[in-house]
Design goal:
single chain; TIM Barrel; 12 strands; binds S-adenosylmethionine; binds iron/sulfur cluster
Amino acid sequence: MSASDLPSARRGVTADTSTVGGDGAPPMIDGYGRHVSYLRVSVTDRCDFRCVYCMSEQMTFLPRADVLTLEELDRLSSAFIRRGVRKLRITGGEPLVRRNIMFLFQSLSRHLESGTLDELTVTTNGSQLARYAQELVDCGVRRVNVSLDTLDPQKFAAITRRGVLARVLAGLAAARSAGLSVKINTVALRGVNEDEIDDLVGWCGGQGFDLCLIETMPLGEVGEDRCDRYLPLSTVRRRLQQRWTLVDSLHRTGGPARYVDVVETGRRIGFITPLSHNFCESCNRVRVTCTGVLYMCLGQDDAVDLRTPLRHATSDIPLLATIDDAIARKPKGHDFVIDRRRAQAATIRHMSATGG
Ligand code: SAM
Ligand code: SF4
């Protein structure tokens, strides 16, 4: 084991304590000195799509009683904000199919108004955006990530198994006219959309959208061998450079993406390469599922139940103490691997359960 494998407390690393939590409490610093300031909350495991890399055709969803109510999700998120989370992303499943979801956005917007939260965002498949774009803006949301893997209606129907491209495009148009900044998330899939990524760069440029390309991650069984679909982004980037001038950007979000500026369009492309690149040393984020399970790392199974302290005490003290213990346990890094000899998921949970 090398020195860098040890938690910072044992290496004598001094954590950055320049920022304090929302109530003046110390910020959340994990055992490796990383400041956890970004929370992703999955508000449902359900979805109106069944994307081939994310879900199997026949999914068994969680019993409703296990899923946190919107009030509980608000309390949980607010506890993290008390502990210094500055950026909150609502995700799923498909967050915008959860009934009365705007209640949660409206309620959380108080933290933006008070200045204890910098950013409230959402990752969505876009199917409900035409309906909700303006309401999201009214709740203080300024940016949305919308997943879109192809501009071909037939291919879109095949990848999502039940989505309609025109509906998502209408949602994107609504987002644009409501003034939301849009980032398109595209999973690069060998033999499916690899010939289109070049055009997607041009299309995003024309629409004023940034683009984030993602390698398939081995999360959850989906009923097909992901090795067949795995397309390294190094290959994608090489191909894009034949048509576009890509300039490395210093832009960072503390997440796995590395960015380039596209000179011809003036927009940015992010590359998320969890399998071929290790990004864990700067990781600033944790995730909570819709049942209140806190995952300190997307690629590890270690998790902590927050629903019990949430449901069994009216005081937030047990909840905050559980969060603090969990953050101290955040692992050093992930173990993703797509390996033909093992050809199985690195973790058994789906991305839709943990929140992308
Ligand atoms: N339903 C919303 C959506 O599609 O944007 C939010 C949840 S979805 C799980 C979040 C992101 O995870 C999407 O951009 C999706 O493409 C991505 N995703 C899902 N499964 C994945 C996998 N196995 N590998 C890489 N990305 C995945
Ligand atoms: Fe649903 Fe998003 Fe998963 Fe597609 S990627 S099935 S839209 S949760």
